[in-house]
Specification:
With about 120 residues, this protein is mainly beta. It has a single domain, classed as Immunoglobulins (Immunoglobulin-like, Sandwich). It has one helix and ten strands. Strands 2, 5, 6, 7, 9 and 10 form a six-stranded mixed beta sheet that branches. The radius of gyration is 15 Å and the shape is elongated.
């Protein structure tokens, strides 16, 4: 399984009505592409996001666990040798800056129960 982003750099978008910590002042739109390699289907079981601002301040990790990816993004099943893009909007800015990096980790398993994990780093401006 390979994991990549639709863009290596994204811009944090201001939120009109924010109220920390329930509604963060900025949202980071991400497109995460997961591609199944080999001859078996892959099921995404969790997507985790960790934002760190340019001063080194980390926000708590956010994990979208199954069945959340299934409900939020359609099916989380990726056919062998095909790819699927997962659109994600991450709220940032409560006790962190608005620029830094997001580390995205995707956990998956195949039809035989073998687990796999992939990671991508996206710069936030």
């Amino acid at each position: 399984m390979t994991v990549r982003a639709t863009s290596t750099s994204v811009v944090a978008q201001p939120v009109v009505t924010s109220f920390c910590p329930s509604i963060a002042p900025f949202t980071v739109p991400l497109g995460i592409i997961v591609q199944a390699s080999g001859l078996t289907n892959v099921l995404v079981t969790a997507i985790s996001l960790q934002f760190t601002d340019t001063a080194g301040v980390r926000m708590p990790q956010v994990t979208l666990a199954a069945p959340l990816p299934t409900v939020q993004f359609g099916t989380a099943l990726i056919a062998a040798r095909s790819a699927q893009t997962f659109p994600i909007a991450l709220g940032i800015g409560c006790r962190t800056g608005r620029s830094g990096v997001v580390v995205v980790t995707v956990d998956a398993s195949d039809q035989q129960g073998r687990r796999d994990s992939g990671q991508v780093v996206v710069s936030v401006r």
